[in-house]
Specification:
alpha+beta; 4-stranded antiparallel beta sheet; 22 helices; 66 strands; about 20% helix; globular
């Protein structure tokens, strides 16, 4: 292209062929040049053969695949350009060159690849050793083994001198269009459309006029070329012409065009911490109050929010919050209100945590009042009267209003009469039945009448019931009855049968019809706060002060205009235990609690369920406790996630561009920074994550989850999200995948994502993660899939491995196709049952590890084995990592080997991880170190050696990055006074004990006892003795000495599992609760020889179900400790004497202090059982902080709720957090700064910061 200075020079070139105007034939015209002779053709042919050899390095071929019935595809013929007529006698012409033009080298050349695909030309063979062919050497690991069979390769890219003339012209055209902006190009498009006809055709004159109107100057030859290219017998196709100009403009290099093509969504953005975001919100609220001299009525808002929070969960709908704020005339609106609502929407489900919302308002108002003291006087000032938009009722005359009211009252009275008649008939029939006076035929006639009535009502019953519920709710609000009147006015009258059915369904006519007159005849014009509201005088059109009248109350939210029947809140009436029992028997209420006063004015506490009621005497300090229903001021914030999922997942650790390490556990994706030792968490998934991948830019993360077994709505899908902001970009495949998303992989640096699910046929799909468009879909048809990867050298080639399966696929995203490319050719090599792992190096070589412990090298990513490591591991190879000159492999045997990447693949280093860490699941490079993911869900690290071998003199880092359990974890206890071990201990059914340091957020150590399934654990404050309960009913006591342990007691106490174990305060006794409803006591007794040993003493048996939890008394009572135990379904509580094994009266234990508070069935927990939490799920565990001010509750739905403690009264509010699949145990740290939770089968140990 450099040989031409302009488009005119290019067009005037005489070395091109001219196409005839009919575009059907062409002839070669070479000005003043005769046809070359045969002697001249020979050097030209030789030069033509040597040119591809010189540019051979620029040609990119696909991997060689041995195929049985595949033919070499000939390249398609180039498109021909239209001719250009010239006015001069010696006109230069433009077209395509001859097929064998030596100057342009655009003719079709011979295939330079030899018969064996080595790409060696005949001239090169002659130059090497006097024409002797070079002997074939043994291929290296990176060589391509070629065969005589034809190969399938990717299309050959054109050489620099083989570029299409159309592309050359487009490049020159882009230089001319560089001076015009994108706005000018769009204006040209509008002009072309203005001149075009219905077929999008224009004339040459109209094209010139469009260029002239938009001040775009192109030479006549360029314009003529465009005309010849896009003109047909109907005119010039303006749309194709504009697309051609746009493509040329995009290559112009103009700044606006470059900015348009630049991808900025993959670049990392500076992120504000949550504290900085909160401080910014508070500052903006302060500025709002100071600038507008405003005031937040936090107390009134809290009152209304509490009433609107029917479920007592501390959350209400987003729209309801906005409505209440507007009715309170809260000076909060626009972007600031949206930001605050977004901040308080903790679970991104349109439910606002209103205590958090009010806390922001309260803090900002206090700060604003300190900065501007004049704001303190605003609450005492009367609020300005804001006019309210008049309703349609205000426009009616008094006569019309009275007529409407009389009609409505008449209908209601008719409903009352019919209800009374029906009741009287029913009562008469019942009395006759009791007296035996009713006759059989009368019974039949009555039943027939009832059947006919039901059949008449059945067709519309569903609609009527739904309308009745809506009307009932409206009537109970301040504007409900008025809405009915508005509906009546607008012509949407309900039929008399509908009103009858509505009244029968509601069975409530307690509202006063006369109050409608007050609302209908009044004409209020102002809206005020309930505390300063005015009441309407009957029959008058003016407002009078409410100070002389008692405010009306109803179950409605306040702050409604007086024209809409404004009424104040009233406290919900507490039900008696009998009422609740009756209501629960008729409805679906699972569990409720009551707090009532008897005739003796003594307060009694009880927990009532469908099957049982547990009553408690009042505690000794009940009068000192303040009955506050508000949720606690403290909140929980996820601080740390312990563990990693390497037991059943592969390729799930990546390093981001921010140098953070991303991995997952349960439904949480963890982003960990080793430099700052901090974690961030992506928590948008609704069930367990099973696969993970990261874009080549290192900022886009893709995670796939499983389909929930308990909630069918939580289906398997893929989430694409940003690592810097943790914002979701796309949700792909919802409802498409079965069971789980098994594996995902990006195609090079593109936005294409390959996905395989775990359905029976193994569905393979291709997505564009930015647009969310499906680019391909096919079926793999194999039993198990282990991994899939794209070749970095050939991004359109995908490799999939699995059980007796290894296959190459090629993707065609433009045509939305995914086709199989090749199958492996093992020749005489051993084929393994499982091909477990895949890895590509920078040169495109593929390496596979299989279940035989062998590593195969597939040169250039092809399907032929070029090198191998036979039985490198004793067992399957789980991971292969390619370095520059070495290959690292890890397997189930726990060994890490280093192999020199040469012909012989010599081993030059090894490292064995501790047996307690299991096998090596994954190797990931991170700077100068290697991250090791293990099969027991731990993450270790090593620092590579800078010597010849990367593993020479290398040792594991002493402190693991994280550790966890690979099977169900339930045991959780605290060790407050330990010096060497961690302060928190967990135990799981995998036989592993893990010690953690919550303050430092570090794993300390672990102990593995294979073959024992632990369900519960407890330890003495010193940590020297640990007691464990097993699934088989064994009680195990361990003596801990440093990092070693000794078993001092192991006895099977029962046939059922031990669910809870606790040391007594003096450490001399152990209480173990079992699923058989018994509590077993073991004591540390002295032997005759002076030694001590643990012996079984006795058991308590009075519970009807499994023991959920138990507590020891802090001090002895009559020289004996007491034990408080409980079960949850049905709720039971018993208090025992640990010496005489007798049950103690609860009245005598109300003043006793307990060592711990883990019993959910207790007098201090009565309020918990009236919440939605207890109605919709089972309470599994509770924990009280050391200050005895907070109680955390874990349930079967995986939620943690935070209440005030003690929680006596029903209707208490709480903070609720979505965490595990199920919460099995909770524990506050010794200082109360953290709350730890374990999730059972999700293998997760979470640490929450109490803020």
């Amino acid at each position: 292209m450099d040989e031409y200075n302009s488009i005119e020079d290019y067009i005037r070139d005489d070395k091109f062929s001219k196409i005839s105007p009919d575009a059907k034939s062409y002839k070669v015209q070479i000005k003043r040049q005769s046809s070359p002779s045969n002697d001249e053709k020979e050097p030209e042919k030789k030069q033509q053969q040597e040119k591809p050899k010189s540019g051979q390095g620029d040609v990119v071929n696909g991997p060689d695949m041995t195929c049985k019935s595949t033919k070499n595809r000939q390249p398609r013929k180039k498109g021909r350009l239209p001719s250009e007529d010239s006015t001069s006698s010696e006109s230069s012409v433009m077209g395509i060159p001859g097929r064998r033009d030596p100057v342009t080298s655009r003719g079709r050349t011979k295939n330079q690849r030899g018969p064996r695909g080595r790409g060696v030309t005949e001239g090169a063979e002659k130059a090497n050793g006097n024409g002797k062919k070079k002997t074939k050497r043994t291929p290296k690991a990176t060589n391509i083994v070629t065969t005589d069979s034809p190969t399938l390769s990717s299309p050959v890219q054109p050489l620099p001198d083989q570029i299409n003339p159309e592309e050359k012209f487009q490049k020159i055209l882009s230089e001319n269009l560089k001076e015009y902006s994108r706005q000018r190009m769009r204006a040209l498009h509008m002009s072309l459309r203005h001149f075009s006809n219905v077929e999008a055709r224009i004339t040459q004159k109209e094209l010139s006029q469009a260029f002239q109107d938009n001040q775009m100057r192109l030479s006549g030859r360029v314009t003529q070329y465009l005309i010849d290219k896009f003109e047909d017998n109907r005119g010039i196709d303006c749309e194709r012409l504009y697309r051609f100009l746009t493509d040329a403009h995009l290559k112009s290099g103009r700044d606006s065009v470059v900015a348009l093509q630049t991808r900025n969504d993959l670049e990392t953005q500076s992120e504000m911490t949550s504290e900085e975001k909160d401080a910014d919100l508070v500052q903006r609220l302060e500025e709002l109050l100071i600038d507008n001299q405003g005031h937040f009525d936090v107390d009134s808002l809290r009152e209304n929010f509490q009433y609107a929070d029917i479920e007592k969960s501390g959350k209400i709908g987003k729209n309801e919050v906005i409505d209440l704020c507007s009715r309170h005339q809260t000076p909060l609106y626009g972007a600031l209100l949206k930001s605050l609502l977004r901040r308080c929407d903790l679970d991104n489900n349109e439910l606002i945590c209103w205590p958090e919302f009010l806390n922001f308002l309260h803090v900002s108002q206090e700060n604003a009042q300190k900065k501007c003291p004049s704001l303190c006087d605003i609450p005492q000032k009367p609020k300005p009267r804001v006019p309210v938009t008049p309703s349609p009722i205000d426009e009616l005359s008094e006569e019309t209003k009275s007529r409407l009211v009389s009609k409505l009252r008449k209908k209601v009275s008719m409903v009352k009469d019919r209800n009374s008649n029906i009741k009287s008939v029913d009562g008469l029939e019942k009395s006759k039945e009791m007296n035996g006076d009713i006759r059989p035929n009368n019974v039949n006639s009555v039943e027939e009448e009832k059947t006919v009535t039901k059949e008449e009502e059945n067709p519309d019953r569903k609609r009527i019931v739904a309308n009745m519920r809506r009307v009932t709710n409206l009537v109970k609000t301040s504007s409900g009855f008025l809405s009915t009147v508005k509906t009546f006015i607008s012509g949407k009258r309900k039929s008399e049968s509908d009103m009858k059915a509505l009244a029968l369904e509601a069975n409530d006519t307690s509202y006063d019809i006369n109050s409608m007159d007050d609302q209908m005849t009044s004409s209020p014009t102002y809206e005020k706060h309930p505390e300063h509201s005015t009441q309407c005088t009957k029959g008058s059109g003016v407002n009078t002060s409410s100070s002389e009248q008692k405010p009306k109350t109803c179950r409605s939210a306040p702050l409604l205009s007086e024209c809409e029947g404004k009424e104040l809140l009233k406290e919900p009436v507490s039900k008696t235990p009998t009422d609740i029992k009756n209501s629960s028997s008729t409805g679906n209420v699972k569990e409720v609690s009551t707090l009532s006063r008897h005739k003796s004015d003594k307060m009694s506490f009880s927990i009532s369920t469908k099957n049982r009621t547990v009553c408690f005497p009042p505690p000794a300090d009940v009068d000192k406790c303040q009955e506050i229903l508000d949720p606690p001021t403290q909140r929980l914030k996820l601080d740390w996630v312990y563990g990693y999922r390497g037991n059943d997942c592969r390729s799930n650790i990546f390093v981001l561009v921010t140098d953070e390490i991303v991995y997952f556990l349960s439904n949480i994706a963890v982003l960990y920074s080793r430099q700052t030792h901090k974690q961030r968490h992506y928590r948008e998934h609704t069930d367990d994550i099973r696969c993970l991948t990261v874009h080549a830019k290192g900022n886009i993360v893709v995670t796939g989850q499983v389909t929930s077994k308990t909630d069918p709505q939580n289906q398997a899908h893929i989430r694409v999200w940003r690592a810097d902001t943790l914002q979701t970009i796309q949700v792909l495949g919802a409802g498409m995948y079965q069971k789980m998303v098994l594996s995902v992989a990006f195609s090079g640096s593109s936005d294409l994502l390959a996905v395989v699910d775990n359905s029976a046929e193994k569905r393979l799909t291709l997505w564009n993660v930015i647009s969310g468009e499906l680019k391909g879909d096919t079926i793999v048809n194999t039993e198990n899939i282990c991994e899939l990867q794209f070749n970095p050298k050939y991004p359109d080639v995908l490799v999939i491995s699995g059980k007796e399966y290894l296959s190459w696929w090629k993707i065609y995203p433009e045509s939305r196709m995914i086709q199989p490319l090749a199958q492996p050719d093992y020749e005489n090599f051993l084929r393994a049952k499982y091909v477990i792992c895949l890895s590509h190096n920078d040169r495109g070589d593929l390496m596979t590890g299989d279940s035989n412990g062998t590593v195969y090298v597939w040169g250039d990513g092809g399907n032929k084995i070029t090198n191998f490591i036979k039985h490198g591991h004793d067992g399957p190879v789980f991971t292969v990592l390619c370095l520059k000159t070495h290959v690292l492999t890890g397997g189930r045997d726990g060994f890490l080997y280093s192999w020199h990447f040469n012909k012989n693949m010599d081993m030059d280093g090894e490292l064995q991880i501790p047996k307690s860490e299991g096998g090596i699941r994954l190797l990931v490079p991170h700077g100068d170190s290697i991250i090791i993911g293990t099969t027991v869900n731990s993450m270790l690290s090593i620092t590579l050696s800078k010597k010849n071998s990367p593993l020479k003199d290398v040792l594991l880092d002493q402190v693991p990055m994280t550790q966890g359990h690979f099977n169900e974890v339930r045991g959780l206890t605290r060790i407050p006074h330990t010096d060497t071990m961690g302060t928190v201990l967990t135990a799981g059914t995998d036989g592993i004990l893990c010690w953690f340091n919550p303050l430092g957020r570090d794993p300390v150590c672990k102990l593995v006892l294979k073959g024992i399934q632990f369900l519960s654990v407890d330890a003495l404050p010193s940590g020297k003795h640990v007691v464990l309960g097993t699934r088989e009913g064994h009680l195990v006591v361990l003596d801990i000495l440093g990092v070693s342990s000794t078993e001092s007691f192991n006895q099977k106490l029962c046939k059922e599992k031990i669910t809870i174990v606790k040391f007594s305060p003096d450490g001399a006794s152990i209480a173990a609760g079992s699923s058989d409803g018994c509590i077993y006591i073991c004591s540390h007794v002295n032997k005759e020889d002076g030694s001590k040993s643990w012996e079984f003493k006795g058991k308590f048996k009075n519970h009807t179900n499994a023991i959920q939890s138990l507590d020891w008394s802090a001090e002895t009572v009559d020289s004996a400790f007491l034990i408080k135990s409980c079960t949850a379904a049905p709720p039971e509580q018993c208090v025992w004497n640990a010496v005489n094994f007798c049950q103690t009266d609860k009245q005598d234990t109300m003043s006793i202090k307990w060592q711990s508070e883990t019993c959910a069935v207790d007098v201090s927990m009565c309020g918990l059982w009236s919440t939605k939490l207890a109605r919709d799920s089972d309470i599994y565990c509770v924990a009280v902080n050391p200050e005895r001010s907070l109680v955390a509750v874990g349930d079967s739905r995986g939620q943690i709720s935070l209440f005030r403690y003690p929680c006596f009264k029903q209707g208490a509010f709480c903070h609720t957090y979505r965490t595990h699949s199920t919460v099995r145990n909770l524990l506050f740290s010794e200082d109360g700064q953290f709350l730890l939770s374990v999730g059972g089968r999700d293998l997760t140990i979470l640490q929450w910061e109490v803020t």
